[in-house]
Specification:
The protein is an alpha+beta fold. Helices cover about 40% and strands about 20% of the residues. The protein has 21 helices and 26 strands. Strands 16, 17, 18, 19, 22, 25 and 26 form a 7-stranded antiparallel sheet that branches. Strands 3-2-1-11-12-7 form a 6-stranded parallel sheet, sandwiched between helices. A 4-stranded antiparallel sheet has the order 5-4-6-8. About 40% of the residues are buried. It binds 5'-O-[(L-methionyl)-sulphamoyl]adenosine. The site of 5'-O-[(L-methionyl)-sulphamoyl]adenosine has 21 residues, from β1, α1, α7 and β11.
């Protein structure tokens, strides 16, 4: 039987500045839903991408002396790196500068014009350049400035094409009030009262004051203006009206578009109107979430209050960050970001909750049974209640996920984690372990715990995809044990399952120390963002060179090319990585203080520069035979100097 299709999208992001934790929310949420649906057996397509046209990009590129495309290419690279770092498993990354997208937008614009829904007119009003938005007087803030970024607006007037919205007003009102398109539906009233009831205004869909956009084919003074360009991505990605292979017939209409509240109007009114005008089916759901706020304001690059997800990921790992943002945000409401809430949440739910449950259970199986459970069993009534609670979690999570209530799904799972930890306290395995007589009971308790962990970790895997496979390793589960169907069944692990003690999943964080460290980083970031200069753009500080040395001294240093064969973190150290190198001389081990900047998998297979004739030394008790070259950055970070792959291992560097 062919799988049922499921199509989910994030908004396409403006690559006008580096991504921040606010951008991560929608993407992590969609990724979790996509993974959840894949686990349930759907044929999922998960789309994300970037919205690359517009005046702001054109201006920023000009300031930097690069073309707009060169400007966006770099930032798009950072977005993609972030999504990889956050373990985002998208199926397609669309860029509005992609040829196939341009083809679709031009055809859609033409079709709407031919059908009489687009006409030429003149636009005048208050305009905010950074936000690229026209505002009416009543929309401006109390100082007469842009309601979004609070900067000054200017009066602007220009010839433009407009999209007629009024023919669709009744159908859109019904869509919002009589169907379950909008999630949460409570937002429908504000849309109807603010935009539909007063009469839908026609939408400006072309501009003549800048060039960085998709040209209108029949009027080359004009480029297509933001929303027709941006919204069309959801169908151009599927090959609609372009040369890409057809996925439109399979995946359209979309199952879920997820967006934050500031772009709800465009997705709740303009997008349905466009689709109606094109005679296309409407998406099934629009899930609207609030903002991640910082000090009460939307976190955003232009407000300068950004929190860098790379920094958070380096400190706590991507799963902890994913969990935190998903667990904090209820659909529809804002959630305020604070280091303290985040760290406390990581400690309570991850270190003490799931982390402790796994390590205690595995350690007891190891201690009392040498890792492999015996086959004897002795069940009690308590077990039946416990098993039922665990099994019920699956249905409860499913109910929450079917309404995009991710926070509730996670709450449900963590209630079961608490229940399992309580089961340990109730059954007191450490007492059972004292006598051989209780062997069967002890094996039953530990087996039930391992089964609970199997089900819990299976359910958590879409949300924390990097850590859960490690849990499976520790509890002796193979991938077939954690398929979705197997999560509703108790008793899947082999009776005499073997556990494997492993690393601590989520180390406990020293709250005070971390908060101080993070606050310093965030303050620094805010200063950087405000001055609008990245570290690499700032002039280098005055460089003080060490005293000159003769060439003979330099020649004493042997720098050789080596390849990283394997790499792992040095236990008990946050800073050190231990690398095994192929140095062309039989191999060697080097310890390097770069763990805060690189994950082992970033380095494996790469070629580096090795100081090959340093005397061996010990770092954190681990022997190091040499040093790898890296550049110190002004912000305290560092970058390894990689070597081109075609330079052979062992080659001498001079
Ligand atoms: N390019 C448009 C979207 C076009 S979709 C057809 C856009 N881009 S954006 O980069 O400014 O924002 C993308 C999404 O990120 C929006 O849903 C926006 O609300 C969301 N967020 C940006 N900052 C955010 C927070 N601080 N918190 C939560 N979401 C945030 O709008």
């Amino acid at each position: 039987m062919s799988k049922k299709p499921f199509y989910i999208t994030t908004p396409i992001y403006y690559p006008s500045g580096n991504p921040h934790i606010g951008h991560c929310y929608t993407t992590v949420a969609c990724d979790s839903i996509a993974r959840y649906k894949r686990m349930q057996g759907y044929d999922v397509k998960f789309l994300t991408g970037t919205d690359e046209h517009g005046l702001k990009i054109e201006q920023k590129a000009a300031e930097k002396g690069v073309t707009p495309k060169e400007y966006v290419d770099e930032i798009v690279g950072t977005f993609k790196r972030l999504w990889k770092y956050m373990n985002i498993d998208y199926d397609q990354f669309i860029r509005t500068t992609d040829d196939y997208h341009i083809e679709t937008v031009q055809k859609i614009f033409r079709e709407l014009y031919d059908k009489g829904y687009i006409y030429k007119g003149e636009y005048s009003g208050k305009y905010c350049t950074p936000c690229e938005s026209f505002w009416t007087d009543s929309q401006l803030d109390e100082n007469g400035c842009c309601p979004e970024c609070h900067r000054e607006v200017t009066f602007a007037k220009e010839e433009a094409y407009f999209f007629k919205m009024s023919p669709f007003a009744d159908r859109i009102e019904k869509l919002l009030t009589e169907t379950d398109y909008l999630q949460p539906k409570t937002r429908a009233a504000e849309l109807v009262n603010n935009f539909i009831k007063p009469g839908l205004e026609d939408l400006c869909v072309s501009r003549t004051t800048f060039k960085w956009g998709i040209p209108v084919t029949f009027d080359d003074k004009h480029v297509v203006y933001v929303w027709i360009d941006a919204l069309s991505n959801y169908i151009s990605a599927l090959g609609y009206q372009n040369s890409r292979p057809d996925e439109f017939s399979k995946y359209w209409p979309a199952d879920v578009h997820m967006v934050a509240k500031d772009i709800m109007r465009f997705h709740a009114i303009i997008w349905p109107a466009m689709l109606m005008a094109l005679d296309l089916p409407l998406p099934k759901h629009l899930a609207v979430h609030g903002w991640i706020t910082f000090n009460g304001e939307k976190m955003s690059k232009s407000l300068g209050n950004v929190v860098d997800p790379f920094v958070l990921g380096e400190h706590y790992g991507c799963d902890a960050i994913r969990y935190h943002i998903l667990r904090e945000m209820a659909l529809g409401a804002d959630s305020s970001f604070s280091n303290e809430i985040m760290i406390n949440r990581i400690n309570s739910d991850l270190a003490n909750g799931i982390g402790n449950l796994v390590s205690r259970t595995v350690a007891m199986a190891d201690k009392y049974f040498g890792s492999t459970l015996p086959e004897e069993r002795e069940e009690t009534e308590l077990d039946t209640e416990f098993k039922n609670t665990v099994i019920q979690t699956v249905a409860d999570v499913d109910a929450a996920m079917s309404e995009t209530r991710i926070k509730n799904a996670l709450e449900t799972i963590f209630r079961t984690v608490d229940r399992a930890n309580k089961y340990i306290d109730e059954t007191e395995p450490w007492k059972l372990g004292k006598s051989e007589e209780n062997k069967a009971r002890l094996a039953t308790v530990l087996y039930n715990l391992l089964e609970a962990i199997r089900i819990i970790s299976g359910l958590l895997s879409p949300f924390m995809p990097s850590t859960m496979p490690e849990v499976w390793k520790q509890i002796g589960a193979v991938p077939e044990n954690v398929t979705y169907e197997k999560l509703s069944v108790f008793g899947v692990l082999p009776v005499n399952v073997t556990v494997h003690k492993g690393d601590i999943l989520f180390p406990r964080i020293d709250v005070e120390k971390e908060i101080e460290e993070l606050n310093n980083i965030i303050t620094e970031n805010m200063e950087k963002a405000k001055s609008n200069l990245s570290e690499s753009e700032k002039p280098a500080e005055k460089i003080e060179l060490a005293p000159e040395i003769p060439i003979e001294d330099f020649m004493k240093v042997e720098i050789r090319v080596a390849k990283v064969v394997s790499c792992e973190k040095v236990k008990k150290s946050k800073k050190l990585l231990c690398l095994q190198l192929d140095d062309g001389m039989g191999g060697r081990q080097v310890v390097s203080g770069i763990a805060q900047y690189y994950k082992p998998e970033d380095l494996i297979g790469r070629k580096i520069q090795l100081i090959a004739n340093l005397k061996p030394s010990k770092l954190c008790g681990v022997e190091s035979n040499g040093m790898i070259c890296a550049a110190d950055l002004a912000d305290g970070g560092c970058r390894v100097i990689f070597v081109d792959d075609d330079i052979p291992v062992g080659a001498k560097i001079r």
